[in-house]
Every structure is written in C-alpha cells, then in structure tokens.
C-alpha cells in the first residue's frame, strides 16, 4: 500500500472550523487508497501562550517541566482533529509521541529524534485506520517527555516519512516557497521545484517556512517534501534531490536576512596571530561568526569586521572590546542596521558572471557593499539595512524576472 505523511501546521488546525476544512485533504488521500499518517502542530498561538504561562510561573522555567507543558498543545490538537475525522466517517486514532514511539535524546526543549517506531502505525494502517500523530514531541529512553524545538512538528513529519519510506506533505498557510518574500517583491513567483541544498540556504537566510532540521533530515534520507497551502487546492513547492529538479535556472531565489549585526575592530596592528586572538574568545563563548572582512593594511594597521547574530551582538561586542584593549586596537564599533541579501541557486555552479552582475545591480542603485561571502550555490552581500528591500527587488528583477546570467552547458 502506498503511504503518505500529511503534516498540518498551527494555522491549519487553528479552530474547529479549520479542522473541519482540512479533513478534505486527509479524506481525499485516504479515499484514493493511501495509508495516511497525519501529523499535527498545536492550534495556532497555543505554544506561545503556554510559554507565556510558564514564564509567569517561573521566569526561567525548568526545561523538563517546560516540555511536559508544551507537549499538551499538540495532544489537544490531535484529540480534537481525530474526533472531527471520526465524526466524518474517517477512523482516526490519535497518538502522542510516546505512543508511536518517537524516541529522542534528553536535551529538553530541543531534543533530537534518535529512533521512530513504526509497528503500531503500520498495524493501524493495516486495519484501515488513520494514525493522527502529535508533532513536536517525543520521549526519552528513560520515559521523559521531550520537545523538538520551535517548528519541530515538521521534523516529526519528515522523520515519520523516513521511517515509512514515503513522501511528506507539509500543509501551511502559504502556497509554497517563493523566489523572494512576496511582501517585498510583488512579482515574486512560487517555485515549483527546489533542491534540498537550495532550500536549506533559503531557510537559513530568512525564508522561514520549515524548520531547518527537518530539511536536513529530508536531504539526508532523500524524502520528497511537498509544501502546500491548506487554504487552497493549488500545487505547492516540491523539495527534492537535486537530480529530480528539472527546471534549470541560475538563481532560484533571493533571500534577505536582517538578523545580524556587524562589529568592526578599528586600527588593529596587522601582524600574524591577530585574527586568532580576536575570534578565539568568541568561539569559546559559543558565538557563531558569519561574514569576515579584513581591510588592506595601512602603515601596519588594518580594520577587521565581522557579523554575528543580533541576539549575540551585545555579548560579542563586550568580548571584542576586551580583546581590542589587549592587542592595542583603537576602537570597536557595532552596527545593528545591516542586512544580508543573497542570491541562491545550484545553477551558479556552472554559470559565470553571476557575482559581477550582483555587484553591478547594487552599484547601479548606489548601494555600498560592506562584506561579501560566497558558497558554491550562494552569494551574500552585507548592506545598509535601509536599502534592503530595494536591493531584493532589483536583484529579483535582474536574476529571476529577466534571467540576466549565462549558464555553461556541461
Ligand atoms: N507547536 C510547536 C511550535 O509552535 C511546534 C510546531 O508547530 O511545529 O513551535
Ligand atoms: Mg511551522
């Protein structure tokens, strides 16, 4: 029998009425003969309000108890959804994480899945039932309830698809993955097919449609994911192994990330070992450094800039101020008003002129580039935050709407 995992996010199960509506997707697959496994998030807003509630009990709630509390959100949703499915004649059976079981490590509030048991799910399916599994939660080998981190239901769904060796549908409130944020670019197009690697870059650079870990999981095991809307019947975006992505374009999407800050160490004596002195204490403080730029030196001095997540910026600045004193740098300057715009596409591997074109597009609008970083399938530029949306629109128009780059045919 063909199997299918269908995951519904918070907005898809936000009310009894929404739950009634989504049964049509479940019912359709079931009536077509699929063995359907449903995964549900908590109803929209429930996890947030549980977190608030916990914080009002204790500003720093113990993580084990936090997991016991947070897991109730999904437990509530699967029970209600199963009642509604049964009322409509579909034999649903709700299952909490521990009943599946979804075995995790014991890192509370961000546990990782170690093992997924499929016997119970398989025998339910064999009986013609529809297992409705609580997303986001698992159980340790010692029997404690865990949760998988915000957005973790995506990972539950993909893990089940891996274990059952089937496709995974992710129902959400957008029609799929777009070539750019549609709120910024009105011409943004829905992407039909995207590779895991491109999706990971898009996700880590700000397109927050799925939990990153779930895409990593899917990539590792080759699970095909279909991200689609539970508000329409339209096809969404397929996230696939690279060889199955047919449409050959150089740039698949443009992303924007405004979650970083830039720190500049001014007038550092330019000698061997200085970079190590600056970055070692940051690493020891578990601060992830992203882009790094060292200027050409003048009379034995240079400026060194780098970016960190804005949430770490204050801490990073304090650490670097200490180091700056020790190594005799003149000053440390922090800038929170920066944005990272990126173009992403596996086609860049076999294209030429892409970086030059990107710099030209920004230059034509008088946008200064503060830092650049690249990978095989991505070019990122750090710019002043006030030009962020303009940059995204211009890059989209050049690379996506007009496809102004050439590809070398292999
Ligand atoms: N309910 C959890 C959250 O809001 C998990 C999820 O929805 O995926 O993060
Ligand atoms: Mg989500």
List the helices and strands and how they pair.
Elements: E1 3-8, H1 16-31, E2 35-40, H2 46-57, H3 63-87, E3 92-95, E4 102-104, E5 113-116, H4 119-126, E6 130-134, E7 137-140, E8 145-147, H5 153-164, E9 167-172, E10 193-195, H6 196-204, H7 212-221, E11 225-229, E12 237-240, E13 253-257, E14 260-269, H8 274-284, E15 289-294, E16 301-309, H9 310-327, E17 331-335, E18 338-344, E19 351-352, H10 354-364, E20 371-375, E21 378-384, H11 388-401, E22 406-407
Parallel strand pairs: 1-2, 1-9, 2-6, 3-6, 4-7, 9-11, 10-12
Antiparallel strand pairs: 4-5, 7-8, 11-12, 13-18, 14-16, 14-17, 15-16, 18-21, 19-22, 20-21
Helix pairs in contact: 1-3, 2-3, 5-7, 6-7, 8-9
Tell me what you see in this structure.
This protein has 410 residues and is an alpha/beta fold. The strands form 5 sheets. An 8-stranded mixed sheet has the order 3-6-2-1-9-11-12-10, sandwiched between helices. The longest helix has 25 residues. The chain has 11 helices and 22 strands. It is globular. The chain has a domain of 171 residues: Acetylglutamate kinase-like (Carbamate kinase), CATH 3.40.1160. The structure holds aspartic acid and magnesium ion (MG). Aspartic acid binds next to helix 5.
CATH architecture of the domain at 3-173: 3-Layer(aba) Sandwich
What's the CATH C level of the domain at 3-173? Alpha Beta
Bound molecules: aspartic acid, magnesium ion
Output the structural class. Answer: alpha/beta
Give the % helix: 25-40%
Which fold name fills CATH's third level, the topology of the domain at 3-173? Carbamate kinase
CATH homologous superfamily assignment of the domain at 3-173: Acetylglutamate kinase-like
Low-confidence stretches: none
Count of DSSP strands = 22
Per DSSP, the total helix count is 11
Mean pLDDT: 95
In angstroms, what is the radius of gyration?
Answer: 24 Å
The geometry reads as globular
Placed side by side, the strands forming the largest sheet appear as 3-6-2-1-9-11-12-10
Strand fraction: 25-35%
**Main β sheet profile:** 8 strands, mixed
């Amino acid at each position: 029998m063909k199997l299918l995992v269908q995951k519904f996010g918070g907005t898809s199960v936000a009310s009894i009425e929404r739950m009634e509506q989504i049964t049509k997707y479940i019912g359709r697959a079931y009536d077509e003969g699929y063995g359907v496994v449903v995964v549900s998030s908590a109803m929209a807003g429930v996890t947030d309000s549980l977190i608030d509630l916990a914080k009002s009990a204790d500003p720093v709630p113990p993580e084990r108890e936090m997991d016991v509390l947070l897991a109730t959100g999904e437990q509530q949703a699967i029970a209600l959804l199963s009642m509604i499915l049964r009322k409509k004649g579909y034999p649903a059976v709700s299952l909490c994480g521990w009943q599946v079981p979804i075995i995790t490590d014991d890192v509370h509030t961000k546990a990782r899945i170690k093992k997924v048991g499929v016997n119970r799910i398989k025998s339910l399916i064999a009986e013609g039932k529809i297992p409705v599994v609580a997303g986001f939660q698992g159980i340790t080998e010692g029997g404690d309830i865990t949760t998988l981190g915000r957005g973790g239901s995506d990972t539950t769904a993909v893990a089940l698809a891996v274990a059952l060796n089937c496709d995974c549908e992710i129902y959400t409130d957008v029609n799929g993955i777009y070539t750019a944020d549609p709120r910024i670019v009105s011409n943004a197009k829905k992407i039909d097919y995207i590779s895991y690697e491109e999706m990971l870059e898009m996700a880590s650079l700000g397109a927050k449609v799925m939990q990153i870990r779930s895409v990593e999981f899917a990539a590792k095991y080759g699970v095909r994911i279909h991200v689609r809307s539970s508000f329409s019947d339209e096809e969404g975006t397929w996230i696939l192994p690279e060889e199955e992505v047919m449409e050959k374009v150089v740039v698949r999407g443009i992303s924007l990330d405004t979650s970083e800050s830039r720190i500049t160490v001014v007038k550092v004596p330019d000698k061997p070992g200085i970079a190590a002195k600056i970055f070692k204490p940051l690493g020891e403080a578990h601060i992830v450094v992203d882009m790094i730029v060292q200027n050409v030196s003048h009379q034995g001095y240079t400026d060194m800039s780098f970016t960190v997540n804005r949430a770490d910026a204050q801490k990073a600045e304090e650490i670097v101020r200490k180091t700056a004193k020790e190594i005799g740098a003149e000053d440390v300057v922090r800038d929170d008003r920066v944005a990272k715009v990126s173009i992403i596409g596996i086609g860049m591997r076999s294209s030429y002129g892409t970086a030059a074109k990107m710099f030209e597009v920004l230059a034509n609008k008088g946008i200064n580039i503060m830092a650049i970083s690249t990978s095989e399938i991505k070019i990122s530029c750090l710019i002043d935050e006030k030009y962020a949306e303009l940059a995204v629109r211009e890059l989209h128009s050049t690379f996506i709407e007009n496809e102004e780059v050439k590809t070398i045919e292999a």
